[in-house]
Amino acid sequence: MRIRVLVINRKKAVYDLSGAICSYIKYTTTRVGSASTVSFDVLKSGEMSFHEGDMVKIFVDKKLYIVCYIFAKSKKEDVISLTCYDILRYMQYKQSYNFSKKTATQIIKQVANEFKIKLGNIADTIYILPDKIYEDKTLLDIVTDALMKTTVKTKKVYTLYDDAGKLTLKESSNMISNYVLGNKSLATTYTYKTSIEESYNYVKLVKPNKKSGKGETYIAFDDEKIKKWGHLQFYKKVDENLNDAQIREMAKNYLKYYARTKRTLKLECLGVKEIRAGSVVLIDIPALGDIDLKKLLLIEKCTHTLSETQHTMSLEMNVIND
User: What is the largest distance, in Å, between two alpha-carbon atoms of the chain?
Assistant: First the structure.
């Protein structure tokens, strides 16, 4: 694997750090609500000069793989440690918006255009969201909320990410990998966990009523799971502009999502650079704890560890066993 790392500073000067890197490059992507991070160490030498805010371009086998920006650096003797973030880090600005009759796609495009964020391929989410006022929220939180509401309504999962310097939105069905990961294919070890620590079997949604000063309550519950686990309540205030049918459907969807044992899988594998958080991969591991696993899973977090001689990745995913 051929890796080339360039730093472009604010004066457009370009420094090739490829020969000075003295550690693995760690590249971590998270599917929801967080910028990707890149970290590596450089041996200080010559006229090397870079600062916070400078752009970093990482090429793998002559193809542009990552674009990120230096946000922190530390020096110990002659070794400089760099921490970089991708373009989603620039969506941490807080802002207030009043959106009416817009899709998540339209919201993303509006936000990106206002803050001069480069756009790549943005999928059309189609679903028109209920009117919503956001006060003092980060751009990333606003967009994440719009996408989550779209998923609840349409059952389609979307991933917002930086594709080599361009803000990109894809639906999970368009991010299916051709690779199979498991005991006999690329995986080296795994950790499987079952838990009800984040499970709920009783959902209570409350819609504020400004006229009466009281909230209107909507409840959905799973009696069998209450008997099995005890009373685990999920509580949330909802938008007062939603009607009764919308809130009842929302309660039903929350219950369906949360009233189940949470199963998580951490997989250590040989690296495949095309796989990232948001990718969908076929996982094949027979006798995985209480289940046999052979199904497509959505990657929630992915960390690549790269050098010219080695490439591994660590994957985290939820296992839905309907």
Answer: 72
Shortest CA distance to 88 belongs to which of 165, 175, 5, 145? 165
User: How does pLDDT run across 283-315, given as a tens digit for each residue?
Assistant: 999 888 777 889 999 999 999 999 989 999 999
pTM, full prediction: 0.86
Beta bridge partners of 80: 42, 75
Dihedral of the alpha carbons of 233, 237, 243, 244, in degrees to the nearest 10: 30
Closest C-alpha to 230, from 198, 194, 200: 200
SS3 87: helix
**CB distance 42 to 21 below 8 Å:** yes
Query: Which residues 6+ apart lie within 8 Å of 85 measured at CB?
Result: 35, 36, 37, 38, 68, 69, 71
In the chain, what is the straight-line distance between the N-terminal and C-terminal CA atoms, in Å? 40
Tokens representing residue 116 in the block: 């001069």
d(CA 189, CA 268): 5
8 Å CB contact between 234 and 203: yes
How many other CB atoms are found less than 10 A from the CB of residue 81? 14
Q: Which long-range contacts (CB under 8 A, 24 or more apart) does 293-298 make?
A: 293/265, 293/319, 294/182, 296/176, 297/265, 298/31, 298/157, 298/172
